[in-house]
Amino acid sequence: MNIKSLLLGSAAALIAVSGARAADAVVVAEPEPAEYVKICDVYGAGYFYIPGTETCLRIGGYVRYDIGVGDHGTNDGVNNVLDHMGDGSHDTYYKQARFALKTWTGQETELGTLKTYTETRFNFGNNTGDYTDPDGAGPLTASTDWQGHNKTTSLNFAWIQLGGLRVGKDESAFDTFIGYAGNVIQDTIVPYGGFDTNVIQYYFDAGNGFSAVVSLEEGYGAYSIDSYVPHVVGGVKWTQGWGAITGVVAYDSNYEEVSGKVRLDVNVSNELSLFIMGGYGADNNIGDSPTTGFAGGRAMYKQWGGNWAVWGGGTYKFNEKTSFNAQVSYDDWKNLGIAANIAYDVVPGFTVTAEVDYQNVGSDDLAKGWFGADKKSNVGGLLRFQRSF
């Protein structure tokens, strides 16, 4: 009896131990908690926190398709190219597709807001082109610029800003601080300043609508600084509910010349906004060759013809989807530009714009005009499709 009880007890103990081990074998470890992307609404819509950091990131950009017709853009006509049959020239479209990728970041620090902005553009399309007779003996040689091809990839913006201090690749404060010349596509028929440049800038916000900027700039291309002395831009602005008054002054270190612009913006009503901007610059020492894109008398900032120029225009919103935009420009060399368009938001983020442009530019004087060309009138049009995100 004792032996039987002992055997039964031993068997029960073995079963209990086996059951415990079997239970232990199927225990599953608790999963780590998932780390989801969190929305950051400090800097506006579209930002989210980069996981594991306090940095907010926004990714955006646009896809654009342009179709251009007519002569606007050059004194010789933008669309004249060699006919494939070899019996003259014909007109063709100017077309360009673009993908622009933009990023923004923001983070609060003990020294203020730390921000960055980048924009990179990728382009495919055709440029203006014409047939030429290099030595006068024939045959005619066709430019290939009119053929569709992958064009430039450009870094348009790449700057860092901490508080009021900004460094990196930007557009000149001579244009950005005072504002671009209207909401038309071709806003530089009469140019109002150079754009691309590396900068060291400081922005001041004095409150009550007053702000200011000081910018040390490198320039671009033939307008790049040729010594350790930078180009310098300074500006002041007063902004109120009715609009704004802005002034900027620029020192071109290459030519040791000063240029300036003043601007008045007026919000006439919820539907109508108007602006007028005037520029003046000395050109006594300015003598850029036509290889820079213009004849003599133009520099990094004073790119209009002669000493003075004026730009004016505005926007009228018919409704939430449709707006009319216009700009008129004129300078001391009697160059005239007129641009007008209708922009329609088909759905949120998708806009179609139809624009008509007129220019009367050039001069019989090689020192005055674009490449010294004779005065000529051109008309062109542009249809733009743009999806922004």
UniProtKB/TrEMBL annotation:
Keyword terms: Cell outer membrane, Ion transport, Membrane, Porin, Signal, Transmembrane, Transmembrane beta strand, Transport
Annotated Pfam families: Porin_2 (PF02530)
Membrane topology (UniProt): Multi-pass membrane protein
One example GO MF annotation: porin activity
Superkingdom, taxonomy of origin: Bacteria
Gene Ontology BP, a term: monoatomic ion transport
GO cellular component assignments: cell outer membrane; pore complex
Keyword Transmembrane annotated: yes
Domain notes per entry: Consists of 16-stranded beta-barrel sheets, with large surface-exposed loops, that form a transmembrane pore at the center of each barrel. The pore is partially ocluded by a peptide loop that folds into the pore lumen.
Entry function: Forms passive diffusion pores that allow small molecular weight hydrophilic materials across the outer membrane.
Family that this chain belongs to: Belongs to the alphaproteobacteria porin family.
Protein name: Porin
